[in-house]
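User: Please run a holo structure prediction.
Assistant: Happy to. Please share the sequence and the ligand.
User: Here you go; the ligand is fe (ii) ion.
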Amino acid sequence: MTEVEVRTACALRLGDDGLVLSHRLAEWASRAPELEEDVALTNIALDLLGQARTLLTHAGGLEGRGRDENDLAYLREERDFVNCLLVEQENGDFGSTIARQLLWSTYQLGLLEALTRSTDSTLAAVAAKAVKEVAYHRDHALQWTLRLGDGTEESHRRMQAGLDRMWPFTAELFERDGVTAEAVALGIGPDPDGLRPGWDAAVDAVLTEATLRRPADTWAPTGGRRGLHTERFGHLLAEMQHLHRSHPGARW
Amino acid sequence: MDPTEALEEHFRRTVEGEQRIEPRDWMPDAYRATLVRQIAQHAHSEIIGMQPEGNWITRAPSLRRKAILMAKVQDEAGHGLYLYAAAETLGTSRDQLLDLLHRGRQKYSSIFNYPTLTWADVGAIGWLVDGAAITNQIPLCRCSYGPYARAMTRICKEESFHQRQGFELLHTLSHGTAAQLAMAQDAVNRWWWPSLMMFGPPDAESAHGARSAAWRIKRHSNDELRQRFVDMTVPQSEVLGVSLPDPELRWNAERGHYDFGALDWEEFRAVVRGDGPCNRQRLAHRVAAHEEGAWVREAALAYAEKRRREPAA
Ligand SMILES: [Fe+2]
Ligand SMILES: [Fe+2]
């Protein structure tokens, strides 16, 4: 891999993560448990979409094939997306969504803090801005994890179920492959191994305070970074891309 | 003068002198009830209005449009929050009002009982529905009740932003491909008459007009506002390059206004009655969101209660 290819891959991975998670969170619009949460979930979705747009534009520029953010979002197939499996998981109930938010935002915050030192100046700039946004996302998820975990019997049961459901998809976040190895060597991105202890400690602390049980590490599905997604992901893309693809070449 | 008469006199002078009534001031019961009903209906409209546009968020055709639409739907939730807070200053909680909405005892604007069938409907709503809402709401920024007037000032700023974004969306479509232009025209054809109905029944049939005017809650009649909206919108339609679906629409130099055709008040009454295309769907969606969120709200209360009982560290 050339250096440009590594930088492109890093931008595309994080860009796809943001694009897909933003889409899932936006599915909550007009469906949240209270108005304040409608506002909060959309806020988070908008932050992630903003990050994704900068990252996809950057990836398209590095790639040098003339693709812009919309070409990358709307005209790639399932097998071309390199987001992790966690962010594409369906929302489920509010407990599942909060579990996904807690696990993802804790990871993303650690990753962004490391990326502020990236040798890719665009990645570093995106990270510096996004750190503040994601610190809020994490705090939002943390507060709700506490309320649901230590709220009522029902909320405890649902929050634990959401956590159990999302947990297996966290293993993939810390996987190493050719891209991460090259990224470390070139100072573009951090070693996933180095992110693990901070994530473990932060997640464990929240779960303990919320009286929740840390699920066992058993099943560890993977493949998102190689374009191997879950079945429901194709449906997400079908919905997202249908209108854009129905009018080839149109401006919106 | 007995004490009540003195209070009434003070209220009347305050209102007629264009001063503001604040939550702690004495006010007639009927004034309070009128405001609660109007603010509640407005708040409900904001949150039900999230549904027709929210319907297109996951299919928005570009990332820029997706971000704009998400921010707009979020603004409407914010408007709902400001307005429920304004109603709360009159002694009626958000929970009470939501309960009345969910049981069909209070209404929201009938415009949201029409479906958003294509992407162009998002633009038509911004241009026409937000446009009509602004026409209705700008005079409310001078409403005699302080908290409502202040909420409306914030809301109107954002609504005019929505209106410009809707216009710009439609302009892009009407200057795009033939299919996009057709989509824009079809949306305008479907939303034009319902938008005119947003101003309510003709003045001759309007129930509470005179009293609300005396109380400085309503400053212009339904028909005046409707005319103002038509006069503002026709020139904009020419810039857009779309036609308005009214063969009788034409400039009347004598009146200095556009003349327009008769509205289908039978359709208006049917939608108000609950027989519009989406009445049942909109209410069922709202009730489902509320009921499915009950366990979350209960958990938040239980958690707060536990923290309160904890001995201070
Ligand atoms: Fe609004
Ligand atoms: Fe609006």
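The first helix of chain B runs from residue 3 to 16.
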